[in-house]
Amino acid sequence: MPLFVRASTLAACLPYALVALSSVCAGPASAQAKYSAGDRVLCNVVGMPDPQYEKYYEKGTVLPFRRGDGEDGSWYRVKADSNGVEYYCKLNVIRPLAAAPAQPTAAAAPAAPPATPNGPKPPAMAAAPAVPAPAPREPAAPTAFVPCPVVQAPSRNGAQPDPALLTKLIRCAKGEKPVPPGQEGAVQVEVSALQVGGSRPWSYRQDQGNGQVGTLVYPVKATYTVRTLYRAATEVEENWVRVLNVYVDPFGEWRIGSEETLKAGTARRIPTR
Fold this sequence. Notes:
Shape: elongated
Structural class: mainly beta
Number of strands: 11
Low-confidence stretches: 1-5, 13-31, 99-108, 133-142
Distance between the termini: 90 Å
Radius of gyration: 35 Å
Order of helices and strands: HEEEEEHEEEEEE
């Protein structure tokens, strides 16, 4: 049977068909890039847009995308001025760096009266002192670092531990390290309080290391702060409180075995002024 469609039915359906065709052919609008390589911006380097993190915005320059990056306009590569580190900055934590406001033009000083042939000459105007350019910021100069591992004099099982030696062992155990000149990321550990408890026998269920039956263990309660030094800021973990169990190993050296955290350090970031 021949198939036919009445003209009136075709005319009624034609608008709907055109609408459907246009919705299929029209692709999603491509995201419009807001920043381009070379733009000067402010980037929140901790990625937090909340007001309490306002101090973490750093000046930087937008870098070109690399091969394989999803260039959807939701994030950008930004190289910070302060430390040269490349950050991935999402759109909600990046701002255009506005040009510095123009400085008001200083009012012209009143002209000195012309000197008469026989009269006194006007006083010479003193030149304004030159303002030196600010020096580049560098990490704060660290105090003396502990050489790690710590060199020890031989000791014996059951001897009373030396607090000065324990302080050095804790500083090394918690990551103290220098860095070569010109680099950043040096770590300093400050032990602010140390308390040595009474000895107890070694326990395989409680202790760690290479102690054995008959080894005496001393619990040491230590309060310490860890500082990591960068050019832009100092990362601080302040006032850790831990119990560290120390003992003399078979080679006559003091070791830190098991640990117990009583209070975690308070983390904060101190920008370089």
